[in-house]
Amino acid sequence: MAILQALQQTSSPITGSSSSAVSPENFIKCLKKFYHHWKEDKSNLWESSSAIAVATPPLSDDIRYKKSLALSMWFFGRELPETIMLFTDRQIHVMCKQKGCDVLKPLKIHVSKAVSVDIVLHSLAKGDNGSSLMDDILRAVCSHSESKSVVIGHLAREKPQGKVLEAWSEKLNGSGLRLSDVSSGISDLLAVKDATEIMYVKKAAYLTASVVRKYVVSKLEKIIADERKVPHSKLTDLTQKILLSPLKVDVKLKAENVDICYPPIFQSGGKYDLRPSASSNSDDLYYDSGSLIVCALGAKYSSYCSNVARTFLIDCDGEKCNAYKVLRQAHDAAIAALKPGSKVSDSYQAAVSVVRDKAPELVPFLTKSAGTGIGLEFRETWLSLNEKNDRILKEGMVFNVSLGFQNLLEKNSDYKNKEYSLWLADTVLVCKEKPHVLTAFVSKADDDAFYSFDEEKAESPSVKLSLNAQVMVPEKPVLKEELMLPLKENLRSRSRTAKEDLRKQLQAEILQKRTAVTAMNSNASNQKSLEGRGLRAVGELVAYKKASDIPCSNLSEIQVDKQNEAILLPIYGVIVPFHVCTVKKAEIRGDSSRVFVCITFNVPGTASNLQDPSLKTNANRIFLKAATFISKDRKHAEEVIQLTRTIQRGVTERARRASLVSQERLQLCAGMTRDRIQLMDLWIRPTFAGRGRKAPGTLVVHVNGFQYSASKSEKVDIMFCNIKHAFFQPAVREMITLLHFHLYNDIMVGNKKTRDVQFYIEVMDTVESVGLSRRLAWDPDEIEEEKRERERRKGINMQFEVFVKRVNSIWSQPKFDQLSLQFETPSQKHGFNGVHGRSTCFIVPAPSCLVQLVESPFLVTSLREVDIVCLERVALGQKSFDMVFVFQDLSRDVVRIEVIPMTSYEEIKDWLSQSNMKYYESKLNLSWRKVLKQIMNDPELDGKNRWEFLNPDASDSGSESSETEDEQYEPSDADSCSESDDEDSGSESVVDSSQDDDAMDGSEDDDGDAAESWDEMERKAREADMEMGSESASEDERQRRREKALAKSRRPNHPQAKGSAQKRQRTN
C-alpha cells in the first residue's frame, strides 16, 4: 500500500535528466546537508580536507556507477559531464562547458543568500583541456585557505577519463598539495535517503517487482508449458524492453525517467553466476525435471536503483527444495536484522546462524555477504552486509539484500543438474519499527517457487491438491492464483486430456445432428425469417429514353435538367446528357478571373453510393473518367454544382426508401391509462439528423409494436413482427442501461436506414466528472456522491427490468406465439475482448446470439443462422486468435472477430460446445470469399463433408502424434493448397496471409522447426510484406492486394526503367 501511495504522490521538480533546469530548492537543501556533514566529520570521514574536488567523466552509453556521477545527480538532479567541482568553505569553483555554465548560472544568487557560499563558474572552451583554468582554481584555493597546509580531498579510486580529467589529475599530483581520499565521506553522505529519494526508490522497486510478477513469471510458465526452446539472451532482451516500457505492465511511470540497473539475468542448466555483473548466455532455457531457473533484474527511476532476484525449481527433489527453504529463512533473517542502531554485520550473521542451525553442510556454499546498500549507486560498498562491517544502521538507509548458495553439488544427476545455485534478492528500506521490503509484491514463498509438471509426483501424498483445481499443481495462495492461470490452462494433465476428449466427442455429435438437419432441409431456408422480403433492385439509369427528348439549346454552357435528373455538358459543340448518378464528384477550382468546373464520373473499380449497375456488365467498354470546363460566370458554375448535389441527395434518399419493406400500421393504445407501459427519458441510436442528443424521448408499448417519440415530428415505430432479437443489458460493466432491437428488415430513423435500434439511459454523468479536482479517499462528499450513483444505477436497472417483464408478459400471449419473442440478457461473465469493426470492444454471448451493443457499429450474430465457426491463428506461441462465423446461407459475408486474447480460448470453445455450434481450428487466416465461392460452385459437396478440409484430424499438419522435433516436415492441407496455387496461375489461394501484430509477436517467440532454407523464408517474407495490409482493411481490399502481388510475381521480366508506370492495355 505504501508503494502505491508513493506512486500517486506528486513528483518533486527535481526529477532530473528529463529537465534542463536545476531546482534551487533541492540544490540548497543538498548543499546544506553536504557542508553540515563535512564540518561534523571533517577529521574522520573527510580526512581533514580543507577543499573537496569532484571530477565527473564524459558522457558514455555504458552502464556505470561512480561516486562523482552519484554526487552530481544528488546535487543537480542530472549528470554534468566533464565537470570539475571544487568545494571550499566560502566558494564553489565549477569548471565545465558553456552549456553547463548556463544551467548553473541561475543558482548563484539563491546559493549566496541561503548558504553564504559563492559559485564561481569557469567556462571551458571547445577543444581546450582547461589547463590554465585549473591553475586559476588551485591558486584561488590556496589564497583563501586559512591554514598553511592545504589538503584537497578527492576520489582517488576513480581513474580519470578524457583529456580534461587526465589534465586535472596531473595538476593535482604535480601541485605539491596534500591529497586525501574522501570516498568514505561521500558514501556516508549519500547513505541516508530523504523522503523524495525514498519515493524514487519505491517507484523503482515497484516497477521491478511488477515486471517479475506480471511478465517474467508468466513468460517462464508459458515457455515451460509449451515446451519451447528460448535462449537466455532472448529472455534478457524481451525483459529489458518491458522494463523500459512501464505501461506494458500497468505501471504508470514516465518511460524517460526509467532505466535498467544492469541487463536482466536468466540462468539455468548448471551454469550460474550470482553477481549483478554476470550476463545471460545464449544457451536455451533448461527446464527438465530437477532443474532450476535463476532470474534477476533491477530498474532505476530518476537514477535511483532497485533489485530483485528469484529462483524457480522445476520438479526438484527434496534435497534442492530443502536447500531453498533454508535460503529463504536465512534471507528473511538477514532482512529482519536491519534495524536502526544495529550493526551492519548483524544482518549477515543472522543469515549464517540460520544456515548453521538448519543445514550446517551448506555454510561453505553461502555467499560471502548478504548484499550492499543501494541508491544512486547500485553497490554502495560502504554499507556492505558482511561479517566485518561494524557501521551503525540508520533509518532511511536502503539495502539490496542478496543471498545465495553458489555451486551446490547433487549426486545421481545429469550433468546439467549436477551443479546448481540458489539466489534471492530484495530491496529493503530501514524503518523505525521494522524493515520494509519494497519488492514484496513478487512472492518468494515455497509454493510460488516450486513447480511440478510430473504427474507421478503430483499424485504423491506429499503434494497438496486444491479442491477446485483441474490440473496437477501444488496448492497456491490467492496472490499467485492470477499468475498461474496461463499455466493451469496449458499444463499437460490427465484432467485436461479428458476434458478435451469430451469436447471432441460432443463436437462429433453436433456435426452428426447438423448433417441430419441439413439433409432434411437442403435449401436451408425454412426459418420464419422475413429478411430481405420486398427489396427492389435499382434498374439501369436512364435520363432520356430517346434523343428527341434531350432539350435543345444553342448556349454552350453546362445545364441541369432537374425533371429528368440529368446534367447536360457541352462537348465539342454538342450537348451530351449524363445521369446525375454517373457523377462521382463535381467541384469548382480556380480564382475569380478563371473558373474551372471539374466533373469526375463513376468508372468500373471506383466506390460510390450512386453507381450505375451496368458498370459491371459493361466493364470492358471505354468510359469517360473526368471532364473540365472553363467558365466565366462563377455564379452560374456554383448553381450548377449545388443543383447537381441536391438532385443526387434526392436520388439517394429515394433509392434508400425504395428498398424498405412496407410494414403494417401501428395500432395505438386507446387513450391515456395508468396501465400504459412506457419508459421515459431515453436516448436513441442512431440519432435523429440535425438534433443529435438535444432532447430525450419516450418509448411506449402499443398493441402491435413500440413507438418512440422525441417530438411531434420525430417518431420511430417498431413492429413486433419485424423484431428478430430483443436484448436488455443492465449497467454492469458499462455506464449505460439499454434496450436493443435487431430487426428483420430495415427501417428509417430520421433519414438513416438501419436494422439495429437502441434505446438507453446513462446511469452516471461521465461528462461533469472530467476535470474536477481530486478528492481524498475518505471525503464525505465523495462517499455520498458514490452512494447516490449506486442508487441511481440500481433504480434505472430496476425500471428497465419492470418494463422488460411487462413486455415479456405481452409477448407470451397466444397471438404472438409465432413470433417467439423474448428479451435476452447477455452474459457479462462469459464475455471477452476482440476487434470488431475498427476498435477493440467487449463482446458477450446471449442465449441465441453473440452481441456487442455498446459501441457502434453494433454486432448481433444470430447463432441459429450460423453453420460453422472457425478459430483461426490457433498455434503455439500466439497471443491472440481470430473467430469467424460462417452462415448457412453461403452467399452472406462471414462475420470476423479478430485479436481475441488466448486466455479466452478455452472458455470460448466451451461456450460453442454448449451452444451446439460446430467449430474448427486453423493455424492460418482463410480467404473466405473464395472458399465459399468454391463450395457453392461444387454441387457434389453436401453438408457433411464440405467443411472436412478444416478438420485438423483429417490433415497432416494438425496431428498431435508428432513424436520428435526432428521428424520430417509434412505440409498440411492448407500448405499444400497454397503451394499448388503458386505453381498454377489459374487457381486461387484460400489462405489469407494478413495477420495482426500479436500474431507476429507470437511467431517471434515460437522457435519452430528449421524445415525451410533461408532463401525460401526470405522469399515468403517478401511476399507476405507485399500482401500485408491494414488490420482494419476489408476482406476485398486484402484480396486485391494479394492478387496484385501475385500478378507481379507472375509477370515476365522485361527491361523497364525504374519508376516508369505500367501502361494499361486498351481493348477495342
TrEMBL record:
Name this polypeptide is given: FACT complex subunit
Gene3D superfamilies documented for this protein: 2.30.29.150, Creatinase/methionine aminopeptidase superfamily, Creatinase/prolidase N-terminal domain, FACT complex subunit Spt16p/Cdc68p, Pleckstrin-homology domain (PH domain)/Phosphotyrosine-binding domain (PTB)
Superkingdom assignment: Eukaryota
Subunit structure: Component of the FACT complex.
PANTHER family: CDC68 RELATED, FACT COMPLEX SUBUNIT
Family recorded in the similarity comment: Belongs to the peptidase M24 family. SPT16 subfamily.
Basic and acidic residues bias (residue ranges): 1016-1025, 1035-1046
Compartment annotation: Nucleus; Chromosome
CDD domains on file: CDC68-like
Upper classification of the organism: Eukaryota, Viridiplantae, Streptophyta, Embryophyta, Tracheophyta
Species, as recorded: Leersia perrieri
GO cellular component: a single term: FACT complex
Domain FACT complex subunit SPT16 N-terminal lobe: start-end pairs: 22-186
